[in-house]
Specification:
Layout lengths: L9 H8 L3 H9 L4 H19 L6 H10 L6 H10 L41 E10 L2 E10 L5 E7 L4 H15 L9 H4 L1
Antiparallel strand pairs: 1-2, 2-3
């Protein structure tokens, strides 16, 4: 009503808003209540604690800090004051990431080793697994191929997508690193 006093009479605004004019004038001259003064002081303390934490503290940690400073305060009051000043904490919870979506129309791949990951000799059973590595730029997917007999990594590959091609790239890495060197084919004049 203060903002519109230049455009409309106070009595008209009071009649439209269904409040008494004397109540409006009494409210304007009334001093702030002790509770609102305490809320203003507490809000400034909350702002300081939030700023000291680089804007990471939410209601639980701000309240814990206030209690440590000797201020007895409730959860809901701290939450309400933080909400009114638009202060938010930073959640460090990791989100659940689904990296595989099985196509129900496709048949399941056969289990050729029957869940027995033990080999009797080297290079008879290789197993592969894929995982993701979180980075600042997003996820990088890593495929690793391991010899089940020696438990040594025989190949690996990284890529931007988790596909079967990534595991095949790990297998190709193995063959390109450990393959015997290719000798040039003999020429006919060398043979005889």
């Amino acid at each position: 009503m203060n903002a519109n006093q230049a455009d409309l009479p106070v009595h008209t605004m009071c009649r439209v808003l269904q409040v008494s004019a004397s109540g409006y004038y009494a409210w304007r001259q009334r001093a702030p209540s002790p509770r609102s003064i305490a809320n203003a002081v507490l809000t400034e303390r909350i702002r300081a604690i939030h700023a000291d934490s680089d804007g990471t503290y939410g209601m639980p940690r701000v309240r814990a800090e206030l209690i440590e400073q000797g201020q007895c305060v409730g959860r809901k009051r701290v939450a309400r004051l933080m909400r009114s000043t638009k202060l938010h904490g930073v959640s460090r919870r990791r989100g659940f990431t689904v990296t595989t979506r099985r196509d129900r129309a496709q048949p399941q791949a056969p289990d050729l080793v029957r869940r027995r990951f033990v080999a009797e000799a080297p290079d008879t059973l290789w197993v592969a697994d894929m995982t993701y590595v979180p980075t600042w730029a997003g996820f990088i997917f890593l495929a690793v191929v391991i010899d089940a007999w020696s438990r040594r990594v025989v190949g690996w590959a990284m890529g931007e997508r988790m596909t079967a091609e990534l595991v095949l790239a790990g297998l190709r890495w193995h063959s390109s690193v450990f393959a015997p060197p290719r000798l040039p084919a003999p020429r006919s004049k060398d043979l005889g």
